[in-house]
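Incident log, entry 3
Record: UspA domain-containing protein (170 residues)
Problem: checksum mismatch between cached and fresh output.
Input:
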Amino acid sequence: MAGECAGVGAERKVMVAIDESDYSHYALTWVLANLKESITSSPLVIFMAQPPPRSSYTFSAPLGSARMYCPVSATPEFTNSVQENHKKLTMAFLEKAKEICASSGVKAETITEVGDPSTAICDAVQKFDISLLVLGERGLGKIKRALLGSVSNYCVQNAKCPVLVVKKPK
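Fresh output:
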C-alpha cells in the first residue's frame, strides 16, 4: 500500500555495537534513555567484536634509553591463550552491558563474533536482520580518522540498515 513504511508490523531489532570505550557505554545508555519505547517488543541486541588471531606479536625490550621492538612469531598455544583472554574480556563487557539494560527494565541479548570490528558489525547486521544499528562516535580527529579509518564511518557506508551514530557530549 502507498504510504506504508517497509517492515510495519514486523519485528524491529535494534543493535548497539560496543567496545571497551566510554563512547560505547554512552551510546548504550543513550539508547536506553531515548529509544526505550522502540525496544520493548524485541530484545535489544548488544554486539561486540573480538579481535582476530594474529600470527605475530611485537614486544618492546628496553635498550638503554631507547627501545627495541622485536616481532615474534606466535606459537599456537600463545595464540590460543590470547584468543581465550580476548573472549573472556568480551564476554565480561557484554555481561556488564546486559546488566545495565536489565537495570533499565530492558531485555537484551548479546552476540560476539571474531573479526575486524567494521566488517563484523556489518555482517552481524545482515545475519541477524537488524533494523537499526547504533554506534558511539569514537571522537577521532580528522587526521586519525583519515589514517586509521573509522568503524562508524565504515558502518554508515556499508551496513544494510539505518545507522545512528551517538556523539558523546564534550
